[in-house]
Amino acid sequence: MSSSSPSGRDVLKESIRGQRRDVAIGSLLGSGHQIGEALVPVLIGVAIDQAVTDSDTGALLVCLGVLAVGYVALALSFRFGAMAGERAAARAEHTLRISLVRRILDPGGGAEEGRLPGALANIATEDAKRVGAVNMALMAGISALTGILTCAVVLLRMSLTLGLVVLLGTPVLLWLGHLLSKPLESRSEAEQERAAHASAVAADLVTGLRILKGIGGESAAIARYRTTSRDSLGATLKAARAQAFQSGVVLALTGCLIAAVALVGGRLAAQGSISLGELVSAVGLALFLLGPLETLSWVNAELAQGRASATRIAEVVATPPAVTSGDRGLPQPVRGAVRLVGVRHGGLRGVDLDIAPGELLGVVATDPADATDLLRCLARRTDPDTGTVELDGIPLRDLDPAELRTAMLVAAHDADLFAGTVRENVTAAAPEGTDPEQAMAAAGVAQVAQTLPDGEHTSVGERGHSLSGGQRQRVALARALAAERPVLVVHDPTTAVDAVTEARIATGLREIRKGRTTVLVTTSPALLSVTDRVVLLDEGRITDTAPHADLIQRHEAYRTAVLA
Fold it and tell me: Transmembrane stretches, by residue range (predicted)?
């Protein structure tokens, strides 16, 4: 992380800065509410001294009227102050969530590396919520301090001794509360880490549920989740114990302060230094102090949890992109000439390859890992360690990743579908106004739609799980074809379909992509047979290039890869 990268402290500051107006309004109304609450015991004391002691009915009625108006003002100020605080928390949470999603979806990538989707979802929900709540805590803290200060001023006017007890005791309580929040902060961070991991594991298991059932791996999966869930429970209990200990100690110390105020006030009343009404006011103010001091204890806990969550958010936001954005634009129009020069990355060992505009090229990798490395470089999910990948003579590293993907689409083998209908999935990346019928026919989705209750308007469920594996593959391929990119790279698009359907797709794919550059990274003989030529990638190097039928005759490694 560079020195300019945001830290947890920066995330907290930005969250508060963005909601200054609502926090200010909430703090003002909350402070007014606390001042009104503090003045209630004073009014009661005045009523006792001026109305009850002297049996003055008129003065009593005036005091009761003032109290009634005061309670109405208290109710309104509390309602609108709380509304402003909740609005500030919700807006900050929303802003943080948008920032996180924007970073996760950034074309440069990088944020998802080393993190499961479930963990990222937990950060974007629970951690964002905790950081947003800091705005509410800040507003409540300012209001509570205002209430304590009002109480201290009133007590000072009654008695210097009473005022000093409050003014000197409150900072000590705040300092102790801050010290006690340190263990809570570290345990809260551990709690969120474990909860995020448990969420990620659960999402991972649900995604692969069909596969687990097919291989009889349910027991191992349950055992894995049980262990993860227990770790999460343990971290949660530790955080809860830390919070309970902090709250309990602060509450006990608060009780001691209130008892001290009541004791000193009682002695002063016995000595005649203060009146009976002032004694009642002093005891009432001592009891009132319980609310603001408990609020400050809660604020300390919220700030501790907010700091821990802000640190986790900052780690995601500050993750450097996997690839940087270049400053060159795409050539217009994009011809679709792709060239690899001395590309070394992962298992690739100096790959040199020229793909002509409009060519339908097959790529067979004897090692699936080499195919994955090649796809990562073509999609610019990473840049080669050495060498370059070019589009129409321009190195991909000189292009903006988002702009590059408007010209070159790399469709992964395990591409997920979105929650929505079949048609909505197919048209997700299609240019506006495009008719997807041709793409759906070429990928065999028309046949899929005929078997569904609502045809192409049938909902596919989350990640397309209501469809079979072959149906999902055909919808994903149709989506890639409907995007109509000048360059399309497809990885094993027909592994889950039958031979007859695969042959139809091969013919349809060649027809729909005629005149546009297409690369099929696959070991399917049906797909390879319709290509213009095939490249054999063996042990990280291109060892031969020729039509599919010729490579079948020439290379044992090729025959093993495509016919085994």
Answer: 59-78, 136-156, 162-180, 248-268
